[in-house]
Amino acid sequence: MKLNSFLTRKIAFPDEQTKKEFDGLLADLTKYHRPVGRDEETQVEIMGLSLWRLRELYAWEFVEISRRSKASEAAMLATTAASRDDRDAAIREAAEQGWQIRELICRAGIRGREEEDGLPGDMTDATANVVVEAKLADGINLVLRYKNAALRDYYRALSVLLTLQRERRELEGEVADEEK
User: How many CB atoms lie within 10 A of CB 49?
Assistant: First the structure.
């Protein structure tokens, strides 16, 4: 049985092989669920689209995890590279062990300025410091949000399909009883 593909016929696949893979997924779902009528076919298509999206999202998730780890390590090492401070050494060690940063702060300023011999306006710099501050966009949260939406779509479509099939079978049973 082939679906009418109302929802999926306009999808632009990158190549013919990808389209064949998607069509194979829809064929498998159709064979397993045996939809009857437009409503059931639509639910099977939604399930196919959701599973296809999930496949792509899982691949994206692994890429983001890898990128996040590499970016975190690079940022931690770069911000502590020139320092001899024990705290920075601990940060370098954490980066090398695979720890990830959640937030990086960067500020430039001077602290410990004192007036010289009580003369107003004459200041000496006791300590200059630089702190880095940056909140980086986290792609993994976006991936997880999309993945959860695809899962909800899949299970919602499966639930609706099963309800439609149960109702159809009940009606078919009533019609068969009336014909006896």
Answer: 20
Distance, CA of 79 to CA of 85 (rounded, Å): 12
CA gap 27, 176 in Å, rounded: 30
pTM summary value = 0.62
Torsion of CA 166, 36, 51, 152, to 10 degrees: -40
- Asked whether residue 11 is assigned to any structural domain, the reply reads no
- Asked whether 92 and 79 are in contact (CB, 8 A), the reply is no
Decide if 87 is inside a domain.
yes
Tokens linked to 88: 């920075």
Q: Specify if 95 maps to a domain.
A: yes
Burial of 157 (0-12, 13-18, 19+ CB in 10 A): buried
The tally of domains found in the chain comes to: 1
The better pLDDT of the pair 91, 124 is held by 91
pLDDT tens per residue, range 53-101: 999 999 988 887 777 767 666 766 776 676 666 666 666 676 666 666 6
Has residue 1 been placed in a domain?
no
* CA atoms within a 13 Å half-sphere pointing along the CA-CB vector of 57: 18
